[in-house]
Write a structure and sequence with these properties.
By secondary structure, this protein is of the alpha+beta class. It has a 3-stranded mixed β-sheet with strand order 1-2-3. The longest helix has 21 residues. The radius of gyration is 12 Å and the shape is globular.
Length: 80
């Protein structure tokens, strides 16, 4: 799968996750995909939440890895 298709699939999966984050006043933004790593930015209430790392690892990363085989890790970044 090419990088453009991978990015599209990542965006689709993030759209499925987004409503759950929105319910808690947060959001997730796709930053980039490079070498199997998906970089995202947690926003809103999720950005400063003490459970942010858990949200990344136990929710976003787990779902992305299971639905997008090219993704091997998800990193929360402060990039804009």
């Amino acid at each position: 799968m090419n990088t453009k298709k991978t990015k599209e699939k990542i965006m689709e999966v993030l759209e499925k996750i987004r409503p759950f984050l929105n319910n808690d006043g947060g959001d997730v933004e796709f930053v980039k995909f490079s070498d199997g790593i998906c970089y995202v930015k947690l926003k809103g209430a999720c950005a400063g939440c003490v459970f942010a790392d858990m949200t990344i690892q136990n929710t976003i990363e787990e779902i992305l890895i299971s639905e997008v085989p090219e993704v091997i890790k998800v990193i929360n970044t402060k990039e804009t």
